[in-house]
Amino acid sequence: MGDLLVRGGTIIDGTGAPARRGDVRVRNGKIAEVGENLRPEGEQELDAGGAIVAPGFIDIHTHYDGSMWWDQTMDPSPQHGVTTVLTGNCAVSLAPVAPGGRDALVDMFCFIEDVPVPAVMKSVPWAWESWAEQRDVFNNLGASCNITPLVGHNNIRLAVMGQESFERAATDEERQRIYDLTLDCMRAGAYGVSLSFVDSDSKGRRVPSRLASAEEYRDLAIAMNEVGYGLLQYVPRFMRAESYIKDIDRVDAMCKGLGVPHTYAPLVAGRRNRPMAEEVLAHTRAVRAAGGRLWPQVSPRSGFDSRMVFDGSSLSFGAMPSWASMCMAQGADKVAMLADPAWREKARQEWDSPVFVLFPRKAVGKLLIGEVLQPHLKQFESKLFESVLEARGGHPSDVLAQWILDCDLEPNLVVPGSADEDRDFLGSLLAADDVLLGASDAGAHLLLFCGAGDTTLFLQRHVRERHDLTIEQGVRKLTGLNAEAMGITDRGLIAPGLAGDLTIFNLDELHYDTEKIVMDVPGGYKRFSRPEGGYRATVVSGEITQQGGVLTEARPGRMLHAGEQGR
Q: N or C: fewer beta carbons within 10 Å in the chain?
């Protein structure tokens, strides 16, 4: 908890109110005074001349649950103005965990979030079973960001039902235990519960959250109503408007009459699926008009080119176990698998099955071939993969497997998403007061993209360049509005008594740069990070966590307790 005087800046307080000149004093980690020409009282001083002083940014959809144990800086989120992250999204967290249930939990978490299993197994201390025990262990470490954690529904069902949680709904006795465990997590500080209606595990099974009955789902909302706080976050089946809407209605029914807010991510907003997004948003607004406390989340990265990763990332092949296991295999094992006729037979069957996966197997020919290092394959460089399919013939699963082998396991295929971007539509969504900026996925999918930096992209593109929002509206989008929607009551605004979390920046100095590869994941694994974003300083509880793009040694962030906000 630090003492700090930020002087001479332009204060944008997170409410949407007009900017004003002034100083901000933080004492013992909390904002003590806001005004003009505040006199120093011996605290550290920070000159904010020519800069905006805003509340610390709140990233409401991250997956730092694993990496925060080996990287307490949560790089690069602080360098993009973030002071608080919401973890435990998409029905997975790292607590609670039943005795003997760790391996199953880690396998599921790492498969869904594309994080290497060895890194999580070796670097997470695993000195807990309960939610409260995890919080205590983490708070002995500290971090560069505060954590407002959700508890994963998968965790709760797995802890109570074991492997049968992948197979069926709970019995009445199990329902009571699930309710009691949910209540225990909430009373120990969880900010809510996360669900998934779409994910599968490494064996192609539906995750436990998808097997719950309507009564089980309702129990979660009843538990939150009992403690008086908490929200439900969920991943809907976002492939078609019909399934999207069905899942929205399912969660709204869970919360009906209980006052529990709920939020879904993502609202997919590309050019091709704009009609679907408009239909889903219209239904969302109808639910809100009828009294539902519902918030959709949109990322400013709605349309972007993404690399197809066949090494260490299995997300794209969720319900295709053969392809998923190949992606997670290493070196000689991967080569042997790709060349094995038995594996290829199973891979073809999965390719032809009707199950939904993110990998565009029905349009694999539209993947773009990037740089090709093998001289005998150079004729395919910068062409679509359909050129390889036409030249070689055969089943597309076999052709792709052979291409990966021929490219020495580095096929360099790209999903060209930027052509699908609709910035006008995206700008209108981000400007809407009933749509949240979220769904960054920072901390997950380490070899697909770096989700951190959405804050900078949003401010650079939609505030500075396109003027979809004013700077006051843009800051509110990243701070006060996210805090309000997520039930975070002790931060998100600049006002006396609230947390001394601040972001200092000049809008013209911000820059959103291309991702870079770093080799800092335990076990020798790599990930995508992003260069710093041009922020002058980021402050958590009165302590500077980054200055001029350089991380400091300060680790004031804590895993916060939802029931103790403001204490």
A: C
